[in-house]
Amino acid sequence: MTNGSGPIARIVTAATKVEPNEIRATALSFAFLFMLMLAYNILKPVRDAMASDWSDPEVATLWTINFFISIVAVSVYGFAVARARFQYLVPGVYGFFAASFLAFYLGSSAIEDAVYVDKSFYVWISVFSLFHISVFWSLMSDVFSKAQAPRIFAFIASGASIGTLAGSSVPLFLATIIGTQNLMLIAAAVLLAIIPALGILQRLKVTELGNENVHVDLNEHQSIGGNPFAGFSLFLKNPYLLGIGVFILLYTSVGSFVYFELKNVLEVFTRDERTAIWAGINTSINVIAIATAWFATGRITTRLGLAKTLALVPVLVAIGLLIVAVNPVIAAIIAAQIILKGGNYSITRPGREMLYTVVDRETRFKAKPVIDIVVYRGGDTITGWAFAGLTAGLGLGLGIVAAIGAGIALLWAFVGLYLGRTFKKRNGEANSVPETGQTI
Q1: For residues 56 and 391, is the Cβ–Cβ distance under 8 A?
Q2: N or C: which end of the chain has fewer CB within 10 A?
Q3: pTM here?
C-alpha cells in the first residue's frame, strides 16, 4: 500500500475509514497483530499435546506453579514499566520471549529425556499469554491518537482473528510432517520477524501520523502492569463483582474438567498426532467463534437479553457433558470443548465484559485485574486439583466426572442468569440490552 490519494488509498479510506496518511501504519499494525497471534496459536497445541504424557496430579501441580509464576511475572513487568522507556520495553518483551522459545527448542532437541524442559515450556506459554496481546495494545495506544483509535483499532483487531485461525492451522497440517519440536522454532522465528516493525511504526508515528506528542498512559491501558491485589477490597465488598468472580470461577472449573478429560483420552496417540488433534480443535473453535461473533452474537444478545445470553453456553456445555457421561467417546469430549471455548469467545465473554459497564471507572480498573488474574488463574489451580482428586484420589471414571462437570455447568448458568438480571436493574433498561461484539 502507498501513502497518497491514489485509487487504492481511496478504496481503503472508503471501506475502513482509514485516512491515506494512516494506511501504512494501520497495515503494519494489522500485520504485527496477525503474526503475533500466528506465533501464539502455533505454540498452544504444542503445549496441550504435552499434557497427555503426565498424570492429573502432575498437570495440577504445573497449574499451581503457573499461578504463582504469573503473579511474579506481572510484578516484574510492572517494575520494568515504571523504569524502562516504552520504545525499548516492547521489543525487549517480544525479543525475550522469542529467545526463550528458541532455547526451549534447543533444549528439547538436545536432551533425550526432556520432561523438565517440556514442563517448563508448558508453564511458560501461559506466562506468554498474559503479555503478548496486552503489550501490543499498549503499543497501539502509543502510536495512534485517541481521535484515530475509534476509526482504526477495529480494523487492526481483525488481524487477531485471522492470525488465530492461521496459527491453529499450521500445526494441524505440519505437526505430523515436521514434528512438534520444529513448530517451536517456527513460532520463535515469527516473533523475531515482527521486531523490526516496531522501529518502522515509531518512524511512521512521527512522519505520517504526526503523533510525536502521543504517548501511552500505562496506568490506564496496561492493567497487567499494576498490582492486582490493590483491588481486593473493592472486589470483596461488592456483591456484584463477587458474582462476576464466581461466574469466572465456574467457567474455569468446567473448562478444567473438559480439558483434563480430553487430555486423558488422547494418551493413546503420539505427541505429534495429539498436536495435530489439538490444532484441529482450536481451528474449529476459531471458525465457529468468528462466524458467531460476526453474524450471531449481536442478534442473540438483543433477542435473549443479557441474562439468557450468559446462561446459553453453560446450558449447552451441560448437555454436552451429560452426553459424555452416557457415552464417553473422544468425539463427544471434543464437541464439548469446541462448544465451551467457541461459545465463550463469541457469546459468553462479550456478555461478561458488558457486566463491567455499570461499575465506575476506578472499580473497573482496580477490581478487574483481581478477577482476570487472581480468580481466573487461581480457579485453574483449585479445579485442577479437584479433578485430580476425583480421578487419581477417588478413582472415579470419565462418565461420573463428566456428570459432575455438567452439574457445575448448570450452576454456572444460574449465576449467569443472576448477573444478567442484576445488570438489567443497574443499567435501568427494562426491555433492551445493547449489542456487543468480540474480536478473538
Answers
A1: yes
A2: N
A3: 0.85
